[in-house]
Amino acid sequence: MEIIKNHIVVVFVILLVKSSSFAQTNFWQDISGIPLGSNLYECTNGQILVGTNSKGIYVSKDDGVTFFPNEPTYGYVYSLSGKGNFLFAYFFTELEGTLIYSSNNGKTWNNISLTVENEVSIIPWNIAISDSGFLFGFAYSDPPKLFRHSSDQWAPIGTDVPFSFRFIESFAIDHDNYFYVGLYRNGLFISSDYGTSWTRQLYPHSISAIMITDSNHIVVGATSGGRDLTNGGVFMSTDQGGTWIPFGLTDKFGIRLFVDSIGQILAATRELGGVGGVYHFDNNEHYWIRYDLPVESFNDALVTSSGTLLAYGAQGGIYRSTDSGIFWSQNSPRNQTIFTVLTINSGCVFVGTLGNGLFNSSDGGVSWSHLPTSVISEYVYSLISVGNSVYAGTDRGVYSSTDNGNEWSNISGGNISGSVYSVVVNSFGDIFAATNFGVYRSPDGSTWFQSGLETSVVSELALNNSNELYAATSQNGIFLSTDNGFNWVSIGLVRNDIQTLAVNNSGHVFVGVYGGIYRSTDQGTTWEEKTIDTSYVYALAFKGAQTVLAGTFNGVNVSHDNGDHWTLLNNSGLDQTFVLSLAVDPAGNLLAGTYRGGLYRTTQPLTSVEPVTELPTRFQLFQNYPNPFNPVTVIRYSLIVNSGATLKVFDVLGREVATLVNEKKAPGVYTVSWDASNQPSGVYLYRLNSGKFVDVRKMILIR
363 by DSSP, 3-state: which? Predict the structure, then answer.
């Protein structure tokens, strides 16, 4: 891994919540799956709802495998709660907060916001539902007033409460209609008479969560109200708040609580430094056990009716486990380091990550599936498609799929030493793999052979339209093979900062390094350096013949003149500018995979500048490259009319040793390679005849 992007540094990204109308003006959109949020809820029909911070509600109909946008598709969803088929959600748009109600498991919603003195008055996190189905909520006033919703009407109940609405963090109703209100640094208020009178417990803790068990035990998540953060945790009362029993997790805060179908208590936590976890309480051993999840803050957890565990991370989105928390898969590539991106004409998008395997989307990034790392490697460095096949280069070899990424097989088996950093397939169907120990070739996808450069670490491979193969190495520069990988010649750029290698449709070679790119328009005979910015160029992509795109630490740069001049693309909406991978989808949109930031796509297709194709203006025979050579070299020539052409090689005594071309050719520029493996060292002449044009040049073979 170090040999490819060995200059990656740790970058921390603050994800900003943006309103829906503002996002529409962004140049980039996040397509890493479900937006970040804090609510998980299972409906009676088994569907899973997720409340997000920016795009309303998402729904899963397959037990949390995939999630799709659901109504409403906009707004910040602060709370999701329900009883039976009845659901309630409070969400906030740019203009106002709205309380919505659904009687069909979230398929359709109605606005039931309470208005007091012409102001929307139910605040996001203080709605509770009784066992009888009544909805209760506090008005947005100070002191807050308690209301009950019944028969589509709101009616005030109780008296003014002895706390401010600004401090309310949680609200619940037990099976005997006792009310529990958790406050920030003001403890827990309890009412047994529908809000007429209140008593306070657990002062001065902040009560972030309240849960009612089937046996009417009250469980709360608390954070110490003082400077000592070790006095909080989980507390339980078996007598409706009369006495409280410490229940562990004393050093956690922001605790969310849940009880599964067998009575097991789960806690999702946020902790100091932005880390946290998901825990379950072992009823037999009487202590909390942390699930083996990534270290991050968690906003909610859920055990579905089928026993599937879901955890909602504050950074990474949805995590899912079907084996009681032993193995977890992430629902989408959110917050992942995306090292390679591939789009194909069917609309599928594949992303390979460093450490979390492969994700794929069949709908252009709306919903995602995660391929378990038991099926494919954790480190996916390269993705390409050829016909109906998709190939992946990984640290376990080469994998292939013929069904849009649903099933994968390791076609290299144990035949390749080291990791596979790059994979290419030529027009003959030969597969090439770049590894720690040179290049490997397979003619059929099952048998593999060492194919040169075995003393080099090869980090990138690229093919041009003539099946000429380029290889980038970590210390020895760029190499070229014109004979299907049997022989290689050095074509320069011996550097230790090469990050990426790519060839456009015109056969021009681009190499990403620190500060910009090197470009060769003559198959590596000469190189031109082009400055972009003070950053490494980690990724390259092309759109048309002249548009080149470069992913850097600072975002994506674009050139519309084949790399001569560069400008930085608009970064609006690109929350993480450290771009490691690029791809252009069939619609012409640019996709950018980032370091620990997920996947982004432009909101509109990129424009490209296409050149007017010009034919050569004169007959010309170019100097071969490389020269001197051993044992393969490339010869280029141009013709301006339809004519017969012959290109022959002679030794210094005038004896013909090879005929490279002998046919009629249309106007254009052509290249041909000569393999001199059977010839002795020395000086050779090559001669082009086309009509009246004749030219001869000299080349040197050195062994």
Answer: coil
Closest CA to 269 of 241, 242, 300: 300
pLDDT at residue 106, as a whole number: 86
**Residue among 324, 327, 289 at smallest CA distance from 309:** 324
CA separation for the pair 186, 199 (Å, rounded): 12
- CA dist 336 and 580 (Å) reads 11
Provide the residue ranges of all domains of the chain, joining segments of one domain with +.
1-30+497-595, 620-701
Torsion of CA 392, 396, 400, 406, to 10 degrees: -90
pLDDT, position 353? 95
User: Do 620-701 and 1-30+497-595 fall under one CATH topology?
Assistant: no
Beta bridge partners of 583: 591
| Choice among 185-189, 227-231, 244-248, 560-564 with the minimum mean pLDDT | 227-231
Above pLDDT 70, what percent of the chain?
91
Residue 3 confidence (pLDDT) above 60: no
* Confidence (pLDDT) at 608: 59
Taking Cα atoms as reference points, which of 178, 173, 179, 226 lies closest to residue 202?
226
Which two structure tokens, joined as six digits, stand for 343?
């789009």
Tokens (6 digits) for 344:
């194909």
Phi (first) and psi of residue 20, to 5 degrees: -65, -35
Contact 275, 267 (CB under 8 A): no
Q: Which of 59-63, 151-155, 180-184, 634-638 has the lowest mean pLDDT?
A: 151-155
Which among 617, 648, 650, 639 is positioned nearest to 693, based on CA atoms? 639
Q: Report the Cα 72 to chain-centroid distance in Å.
A: 25
- The SS3 call for residue 338 is strand
What whole-number distance in Å separates Cα of residue 667 and Cα of residue 640?
A: 5
Residue 6: is its pLDDT beyond 50? no
Radius of gyration of the chain, Cα coordinates, nearest whole angstrom: 32
Q: Is the pLDDT of residue 164 over 50?
A: yes
Q: What is the DSSP string of 19-71?
A: -HHHHTT-SEEE-SSSPPEEEEEE-TTS-EEEEESSB-EEEESSTTS--EEES
Residue 582's region, left for phi above 0, alpha for psi from -120 to 50, else beta, is beta
1-30+497-595, CATH topology level: Methylamine Dehydrogenase; Chain H (2.130.10)
> Cβ distance 244 to 226 under 8 Å?
no
Quickly name the fold that domain 620-701 has. Answer: Immunoglobulin-like (2.60.40)
Place of tokens 């991106």: 341
471, β-bridge pairs: 461, 479
User: Is the CB of residue 98 less than 8 Å from the CB of residue 88?
Assistant: no
| Total residue length of the chain | 703
CA distance 496 to 2: 12
- Which one has a higher pLDDT value, 184 or 4? 184
More confident residue, 392 or 260: 392
Q: Are 202 and 210 in contact (CB under 8 A)?
A: no
pLDDT per position as a tens digit, 446-469: 999 999 999 999 999 999 988 999
Cα 620 to Cα 656: distance, rounded to the nearest angstrom: 21
**363-401 residue pLDDT tens:** 888 888 888 777 888 999 999 999 889 999 999 999 999
User: Which residues make beta-bridge pairs with 266?
Assistant: 258, 280
Q: State the Cα–Cα distance between residues 272 and 10, nearest whole angstrom.
A: 20
Distances, alpha carbon 61 to alpha carbons 64, 68, 304, 350, 543, in Å: 7, 9, 12, 22, 38
What local confidence, expressed as pLDDT, does residue 4 receive?
42
| pLDDT at res. 672 | 86
Q: Which two tokens stand for residue 149?
A: 């919703």
In contact, 39 and 48? CB cutoff 8 Å? no
The SS3 of residue 273 is helix
Local structure of 565: helix, strand or coil: coil
